[in-house]
Amino acid sequence: MKVFVPLIIAPLLLISTFNVLSNEDKIVVRNANDSGQGSLRAALLSGKTTVEIDASVGSIKLLSPLIVEDVKKLNILGAGQWIDGSKIVGNDHILSMKSIADLTVQGINFVGNAEEISQDPDKQVGGSAIYVGVPASFAQDLNVSLKNVSIARVGGHGVHVSDCSTGSICGGGNNAEGKGSSASIYVDLDSVSIRNVGYGRQDGDGFRVDERGIGSIYMNISNSLFYEAGADGMELDEAGSGDVVVNIDKSAFLNNGAYCDLVKFKNGSKCDDEGSPDLDDGFDIDEADEGSIMINLTNTDANHNYDEGFDFDEQGKGDIVFNGKLLEAASNLNEGIKVSEENGGSVRVLLSQLLAVDNNGSKEGVQIEEEGKGDLEVRLGKSTMIGGAAEKLKVEQADKGKGILKIESSNEIELDLKGVKVK
Ligand SMILES: [Ca+2]
Ligand SMILES: [Ca+2]
Ligand SMILES: [Ca+2]
Ligand SMILES: [Ca+2]
Question: In angstroms, rounded to a whole number, what is the distance separating the alpha carbons of residues 242 and 269?
Fold first, then answer.
């Protein structure tokens, strides 16, 4: 039966309907069982928007993966419980979502079953703790928000948000493969810890976003730790039109990227990077095609990573704008900070109170390069770079364009300049 609603009161009715829905749209998890009434699995299958795990519920030991489909929005709110995925075998993820809009997870610790380092880098052993797959037809933006969440011991990525049709072989930069939806991806991380993940194969990152097609990656991170991932602590791969915009405060990327150093080297394997083990970074951004990289980092460290500490690459049209304050990059096996821009577009890097120590075997502590059309401007203030005989600041303007370096109130800065004037 059709009910006639006069137009003038229709908005009021809408509001009251939403209020009723928001109360009815919550389900409470009452026990730690794998399935059945009152369990987390049953709550996730109920279609409710908010799944709240009661504080009385203890560790939830899963017998099989949690899979959520066809939910427009999902909030999973825990009270510090463990979700134990140690019984999940094969390449299944602990929690996976397809055809979903927004995901919020709070107050939950995920633990997987990866106790050993897989010796075959070409074979995937283990999935992610959280996998969010964006369907190709998806048109609205996707929000992923994690707060007070820890993740450990999964063989794949700690978290994988994939807007990319080729799944695990999406890649980055000019080698980026796959197609994506028109959605942008928004990620908000507060008090998140991801550690000891990604040892089940080559390229298992702590936190990974693949963004293809139209759309950008927008990310806010605070009070978070990304450490001992087999590959990058965090990897953002963006291709197609769209930017990568990142704000990070009070966070650290420590001791990531060792996987290929821990397995026996085999020519032609996925770990073979032109004859050497393919090691990874603390924080890696690869942006391709139209669009820029814009990064604000404060109070953030990248130490003891097996490739670069911070590695930001921009290709195609677009600029790199990087502001960093109170950063530390120490004992990374390659550069502490590497910024490279190709093609049309400029680079502007402003670093203050940077401490770079013992990076890249006492060669470049920081390397910033600009190619193709565009200018280069680097400012360094109140900073120190220490390392063996010489830990250098390498700044290169490869083509025409302007190249300017300004250094103020800094110590022990050894320069290696090309096409750059010091002001
Ligand atoms: Ca997209
Ligand atoms: Ca882009
Ligand atoms: Ca670009
Ligand atoms: Ca350029």
Answer: 32
